Amino acid sequence: MQKLTLIGNLGADAVIRQSPGKDDFLSFKVACTESFTNNSGDKTERTTWYDCTSKKTHLAQFLKKGHQLHVEGYPKYEIYKSGAGDVQIQISVNVRDIQLLNNKKD
User: Which of 4, 41, 48, 86 is deepest in the core (most CB within 10 A)?
Assistant: First the structure.
């Protein structure tokens, strides 16, 4: 079993969607940014985006763009080729626990 823990910021307001089986779910994107020094000695940042889904639709009203979250869940990886032929990896998370850490606007 794999478990993924993220601390990051919402890229947009969370949205309630409906699956083909007519079940509602919450959909949102979390950006996690790490800072590091590259081989040239320059400080740089790298941001990874995660597509998240959760059955906790009642939280939609609180999950707004810019909010910082702590998310725990199970990862799902999809590998595909882009239109240019590059191999891409999409990481999605089936979220089990969400904690709102702060509002970036506060």
Answer: 4
How far apart, in whole angstroms, are the C-alpha atoms of residue 53 and residue 88?
20
Give Dmax over CA atoms of the chain in angstroms. 52
Q: What is the spatial distance between Cα 57 and Cα 16, in angstroms, rounded to a whole number?
A: 6
pTM over 0.85, yes/no: no
H/E/C letters for each residue in 62-105?
HCCCCCEEEEEEEEEEEEEECCCCCEEEEEEEEEEEEEEEECCC
32-55 pLDDT, tens digit per residue, is 999 999 899 899 999 999 999 999
